[in-house]
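Usage

Read records sequentially. Each one opens with the input sequence:
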Amino acid sequence: MAVETRASAFQTAQRRFDAAADVIGLSDDARRGLRDVKRELTVHFPVRMDDASVRVFTGWRVQHNISRGPAKGGIRYHPNINLDLVKALAMLMTWKCAAVGLPYGGSKGAVACDPNKLSMSELEHLTRRYATEIAILIGPEKDIPAPDMGTNPQVMAWIMDTISMHSGHSVTASVTGKPVDVGGSEGRIDAPGRGATYLTLEGLKYLHVDEETPTVAVQGYGQVGRSTARLLAEAGVKVVAVSDSRGGVYNPNGLDLGALEEHRQVRGGVTGFKKADNVTNDEIIELPVTVLVPAAVQDQITGENAGRIRARLITEGANAAISPEADPILHDRNIFVVPDIIANAGGVIVSYFEWVQDLQAFFWEEEEINTKLHHVITRAFYEILHTSVNKRIDMRLAAYALAVQRVANATTVRGIYP
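and closes with the structure output:
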């Protein structure tokens, strides 16, 4: 029987940290402090279902590091989630916040459940009980949750209300990604896609792409993928292919995104769109396009298919869409990668803006938020690019090296208590 040797999600996260620590010559003492998480809370809690039965769910909240400020990280509802993955995602959030210069540490939360199989009432009961269980860790100055896979602004509103009920007053800054009616920020929904769009355009500029109309394929036509496709099209990039979990569509002459959205609303997916050919999710990765945006799930570009990628630029919209084995192959083939640690950081950047607005009780217009997002994320892009060029390393390793150095500096200067 073959032995499974694939690294766990957290082992992979540690592997990326180790590589960055080697680049900056991090001391063994500093490595020991950053290689593991600071806190991990596991909770088992009962929820009364609509049929009056009681189910016990398992959830987690993990904080990796808080040297640079309060922890920041989403909450994921998914049936296939475990502590190992939550730890990996918490570590990634530390580096992501540091890479774009936000005064946050990293955290992540999750509940093992399928939100699609819960009624609205059951989802609310689960959310409020989970929020109560992790309330010892979260708060505006401690750890600020946000939406992630399987959660949304309504879930964040329930968490904020639960924390507020415990406090006796409204604590709007306790979570981000809320509805605007209860302290949410303008521009938050489109923020991940807008950030990815800004960096794709900067990447094309850096590569001196001389095509009159660059083309893009977007794998993963969820909220992030749709926003990215729409915003890139508005910027003059031709969207020729998109896909969702069922498959994709391709038209080398460009897709009519308005008509495609009408088709998606009616059919529940993009496949079968009459003005394009059907393609699989594997095929969309290898199409002859200028830009590829993998915005679906992890491990879509691997050591097996990296040699067949024909895009010049990859904007990694989904976390870990590119496997560690694929990175050196893409780098050797001169395919420029904007890594996930910065490519999908638009969400946490605007979440930071939301937190600041809530703390001040003073809110900004969407145009101002988009301008600030552009400034923060493009500044980070060029800082990482500068590190990449100077150290002759790929963009991912450069981003990690810059982030790890910033967190290590903060940890060192704070010292060890007591």
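Summary fields computed downstream for this record:
- Residues 366-391 form the longest helix (26 residues).
- Residues 191-343 form a domain with the Rossmann fold fold (CATH 3.40.50.720).
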